[in-house]
Design brief:
three-stranded antiparallel sheet, 5 helices, binds zinc ion
């Protein structure tokens, strides 16, 4: 398995997984490799910038809080979930949110700035979380910055014990 850093003609960068270099070339020739952002099939290997260690540069963006009360309201309209399953999902979500909170630094409204500084190597790589607008998040992704949106329950935002 080969992981390649790719770039479309609009300059979006993304990662592609291929069986081999040859496999990549043949898929590009048949226009099977497309940019996940704009669908462009004029994809080539990214030549600039050294390979980034994305595993260390995860920068979760945290969207506005979704309180458990809101979550319940949302699920009321849809098909009723088995309460056990719902509870298991809630536990898994809380667990994941706690992991993120424990392993990231809260940079609040400076999220977009910090994510860029980390991405461009101006500061040491670390996990950060904070607030960003959908527009900012899109711009960050277009610059090749890895981020995920994750609603964090309000009660978990208090300092960890
Ligand atoms: Zn693109």
């Amino acid at each position: 398995m080969k992981v390649l850093d790719l770039q479309c003609s609009a300059g979006h960068t993304f990662e592609g997984w291929f069986g081999s270099e040859q496999n990549f070339v043949s898929q590009v020739q048949r226009a099977l490799v497309q940019c996940p952002l704009c669908g462009d099939a004029a994809v080539q290997k990214k030549l600039s910038a050294p390979r980034l260690n994305l595993s260390g540069a995860k920068a979760p963006a945290v969207s506005p809080p979704l309180s458990p009360a809101n979550a319940d309201a949302v699920s009321e309209g849809g098909p009723a979930l088995n309460p056990e399953l719902q509870n298991a999902l809630h536990q898994a979500w809380v667990h994941m949110a706690k992991q993120v909170l424990a392993n990231t630094e809260d940079v609040g409204d400076r999220f977009a700035d910090e994510a860029r500084r980390i991405h461009y190597g101006e500061v040491a790589e670390r996990g950060i979380r904070g607030k960003t607008t959908p527009t900012e998040a899109r711009e960050l992704m277009e610059e090749g910055i890895d981020l995920v949106a994750l609603p964090i329950p309000e009660h978990l935002k208090k300092p960890l014990q």
